[in-house]
Amino acid sequence: MNNMNPKSLIVIFGATGDLAKRKLFPSIYQLYEKGKLSEEFAVVGVARRPLSNDEFRNYVRQSVENALRQELSDLSFVSHFYYHPFDVTDIASYQQLKTLLAQLDETYHTDGNRIFYLAMAPEFFGTITSRLKSEGLTATNGWKRLVIEKPFGHDFRSAQQLNVEIRQSFAEHEIYRIDHYLGKEMVQNIEVIRFSNAIFEPLWNNRFISNIQITSSETLGVEDRGRYYDHSGALRDMVQNHMLQMVALLAMEPPIKLTTDDIRSEKVKVLRALRPISHDEVDQYFVRGQYGRGIVNGKEVISYREENNVDPNSNTETFVAGKLMIDNFRWAGVPFYIRTGKRMTEKSTKIVVQFKDVPMNLYYRTNEKIQPNLLIIHIQPDEGITLHLNGKKSGENMKTTPIELDYCNNCIDGINTPEAYEKLLYDCMRGDATNFTHWDEVAASWQFVDPISEVWESTKAADFPNYEAGSMGPKASDALLEKDGFRWWPIHYHQ
Ligand code: NAP
């Protein structure tokens, strides 16, 4: 197989849904446009609503045009798309799908390679995978891969159940669990920054780092996802997956090689080293929040409890801040603070690595308070790194001033970093599972998170809503760091 231009059939279950429209079709188009897909591919869309192939192709074309804000002049791309309407619970229809895939395999010379992408609600995952096997769609001469969207379970038990179900039909190495944060350019860059710079790795431990802060803030509320979100909340929606994955990448030991298995096994070790939080310690380590009314981007917005499909007395958290301790040699004593929430001041994902203070301040006579050195990794929307140092204030006798060394990845004209989904789809086609989550990671993450959600679900948060929309979360989130002598570094350092 030509590994750079993989050939395969991609079956998208849930092809008329939001994810397919906004992310999957535009990403497949980008790969095609960049010549990363050979002409030897076809996409089959599955959903219930009746559409002809032509109507579906038109729909795909519009989705791509809307996402890229440009018209497609060449329609050869959409000619690779086919639509096969059926209810995934209807067993008989899988046989017709099987016939279609066999025909397309011949037409496009795809060697029996198949990706089954489940862009549907998780309750269907088990049904679809078991039918794919029982009806013989997974019995192919080529490779077969399963791509699964989050959420992967609701807690450890349900995740384990789901895993057992899908493992009946797919082996672990054939399962690609999407965590789209792992497709982001700067998340992938964490590894490069750490392991290719001689100046960081020697300092990357509890002797030189005082704390690490990860913030992922959104300005949006729940939009039209109220029904899902009110049963999920920020802990399950963001912390169990994206936030813990970033912690693992920041904290892992250098892998022996940059292979999928070596990297994953180092990440799993971090997740296993997370200090477990017992029910009665939750308040000590974690803070929950829910947004009230407020002003975001100059506009008045309603509170979470007033949103569509949200219980007016909802106890669901839209904000989480937490302190994580990693009990291993490298990180003993270094808190990793995380926070994430909706309706916050600004959309931003950022990591701040705060180094310890110099052993002795020689500048105390000039009343100087030296700023700590910070390494800031900007994940989104800015992509780049900033290193905060101290320099001499020009002209003034030995006074210090903070200076910033800045590298902005997406400020350079012409550099348009690929969408996470584009990279992840391409990885999946090439059989590179490094940036997907292994079951062991999912399991360890749920085991860490479960006691927290158990406490939060069984006790009503008396102070909800406890942060104003447009703010950086409840006061208790600031207090979490203050009691350790730290503070959240602002999203914009100059504030
Ligand atoms: P969605 O907009 O609700 O789409 C669901 C799709 O499933 C539609 O195409 C629907 O089409 C189809 N469908 C529903 N029941 C069906 C059935 N019984 N048989 C066949 N098709 C059926 O959902 P989504 O937002 O795209 O999300 C899909 C998955 O991705 C979910 O697991 C979600 O958690 C995850 N996800 C989504 C996003 C996002 O940005 N949207 C982000 C992260 C993860 P018909 O009504 O025509 O059948």
Automatic annotation (TrEMBL):
HAMAP family reported for this sequence: G6PD (MF_00966)
Gene: zwf
UniProt keyword NADP, yes or no: yes
Top-tier EC class: oxidoreductase
Gene Ontology CC entries for this record: cytosol
Chain positions recorded as substrate binding sites: 180, 184, 218, 237, 342, 347
GO biological process: glucose metabolic process; pentose-phosphate shunt, oxidative branch
Keywords: Carbohydrate metabolism, Glucose metabolism, NADP, Oxidoreductase
Pathway linked to the protein: Carbohydrate degradation; pentose phosphate pathway; D-ribulose 5-phosphate from D-glucose 6-phosphate (oxidative stage): step 1/3
A Pfam entry, by short name: G6PD_C
Protein name: Glucose-6-phosphate 1-dehydrogenase
Residue ranges occupied by any Glucose-6-phosphate dehydrogenase NAD-binding domain in the UniProt entry: 11-189
PANTHER family on file: GLUCOSE-6-PHOSPHATE 1-DEHYDROGENASE (PTHR23429:SF0), GLUCOSE-6-PHOSPHATE 1-DEHYDROGENASE G6PD (PTHR23429)
Gene Ontology molecular-function annotations: glucose-6-phosphate dehydrogenase activity; NADP binding
Active site: residue positions: 242
Domain Glucose-6-phosphate dehydrogenase C-terminal: 192-489
